[in-house]
Amino acid sequence: MIPVDQNSGWLLSLPLFHIGGYAIPFRVFLAGGRVILDEAPHSLAERLEQQAISHLSLVPTQLWRLLKAGFTLSAPNCASYCWAVRRFLRRWWRR
Question: What Gene3D superfamilies does its record include (predicted)?
């Protein structure tokens, strides 16, 4: 389980009709954290680099597009959520 606390800022990057998006506000509010709304016109990569986002949920297509756009896992705010991305990528590449 990914730890969430009052210092957490979870980007709502999934639609609320998706179970992953539906669960984010509940997890964050129960822990006393913040939900960061996914606002256009900024790209996901720009938001990750500029905003205080500590948590992020993506479907595989979003992750693929993010990496294809040149996002690196060494972005300044990346420490909190990139461990899960790295773990996923290691598992995926082993296939």
Answer: N-terminal domain of ligase-like
Q: What is the mean pLDDT of the chain?
A: 77
d(CA 79, CA 63): 16
Reported as type and span, the H/E element at residue 56 is strand 55-56
77, 52 in Cβ contact below 8 A? yes
Which tens digits make up the pLDDT trace of 37-58?
866 677 888 888 778 888 888 8
Joined together, the tokens standing for residue 29 give 């509010």
CA distance readout (Å), 56 to 3, 6, 94, 95: 12, 16, 23, 24
What are the residues facing 79 on neighbouring strands? none
d(CA 7, CA 4): 8
Element holding 49 (H helix, E strand): helix 44-50
C-alpha of 81 from chain center:
6
